[in-house]
Amino acid sequence: MSQSGNSAADDSGSEQVTQRKRIHRPYPAMLAYWDKNERCRFVNDAGLEWFNQTSGSVIGKMHIRDFVGQDLYTENRYYIRSVLSGHPHIFERTIKDKDKGDIPVLVTLIPDISDGETTGFYAHVADVGHLKKKSEEKLANEKELLRAIIEIQEKERSHIAEILRDNVNQLLVYVNLMLQGKQDNHEDPSFSAEMKQAIHMAVLELNKLSNQLYPSGLSLLGLLPSIENLISNYKQPGAPDISFYCNDPQIEALSHQDKLSVYRIVQDFISLILNRRRSSYILTELSYRDFCLMIRIVYNGDGPRIDHESDEFRDIRSRIDYYSGKIREFHREEEMVFIAHLVFQPPH
User: What is the CATH number of the domain that holds 260?
Assistant: First the structure.
């Protein structure tokens, strides 16, 4: 063989050695190869360190069950069998470390297929704890922003309701007293009676409007009576038949802020239906258990679909997002169904 040939062979061998050294350096992720008999053919330093093993006792000798331990092996047995049948997998797991405790990892299993036969599989296990921490921090920041927006909205509504309930109400009462004085002075009694009736109706409407802006009875009466009162205000000639049911009065154990959010979701969605649909009935149901709530609203009728770009629906979605919830909407024969799931934090 020529000198140049030897040089090329030497370069190739040197490159393979370098690659082997690189792959054996400690990485934040474990990389291993297991044959079809589930015996280790390769594992990098990170994998050896994670599972407190040595290269000499593992490579070519150790079964995967002995390497990871019986519990973790049993937990992942389905995926091992599946990847040895030729199916790749990516999933999350938690492994225990004597120093770091529980480590969230992302596991990637890739079958090694040769001539249509699976001869083994590659396993890549990456510590994603820092990513989960960032994700949790981002979620916490988003929830804090949603909470701030919701609080600002409620303060504005409360302030407007207070103005209506107090200032305007007092003015109408004052005018009513003035009319009473004129009636006592024998001025036109029929005119005074009509004006008094009109003012009385205005006071009732203003109280109803202020209560819709901010349900003052929520803290005194509770969530369920407040929703029932809300629905009774919607009942008028030509309006849909609106019914309400809750399976568990323990929902009243929620905090005032949580109950207000539930009230707003129900209120806003019913308002959307009334403003856009010609419905003959609206069924509203709360299913509550162990701090998990399902809001289910079923309605019929013709008219445009619920506007998901409206302020009301954005408010609904913001509140549901705040409680890590989900929304589902679907047709069922001639009905439309809206379902929202919310998860509350138990009181400390």
Answer: 3.30.565.10
Indicate the SS3 state at residue 36.
Answer: coil
183 and 171 share one domain: yes
Strand partners, 104: 94
The 10s digit of each residue's pLDDT in 230-258 is 888 888 788 899 999 998 889 999 988 89
Q: β-strand 241-246 against 281-289: which pairing, if any?
A: parallel
Tokens read off for 205: 């409407």
- In the block, tokens 């200032």 appear at 167
* Encoded tokens for 111: 């079958």
Whether 312 and 212 have beta carbons less than 8 Å apart is answered as no
Strands (DSSP E) contained in 197-314 are: 241-246, 281-289, 292-299
**CA 333, 310, 304 angle in degrees (round to 5)?**
35
Distance between CA 146 and CA 342 in Å, rounded? 15
What is the average pLDDT across 21-41?
74
Instruction: State how many domains the chain has.
Output: 3
- pTM for the model: 0.50
Region for residue 230 given its phi and psi (left: phi exceeds 0; alpha: psi -120 to 50; beta: otherwise): alpha
Q: Is 193 in the same domain as 302?
A: no
Say yes or no: 72 and 56 in one domain: yes
Pull the structure tokens for residue 90. 């990516």
Three-state DSSP at 32 gives: strand
- pLDDT surpassing 50 at residue 155: yes
- B/e letters for 311-334, b = 16+ CB within 10 Å, e = fewer, are ebbebbbbbbbbbebebeeeeeee
Tell me if 6 sits within 8 A of 85, measured CB to CB: no
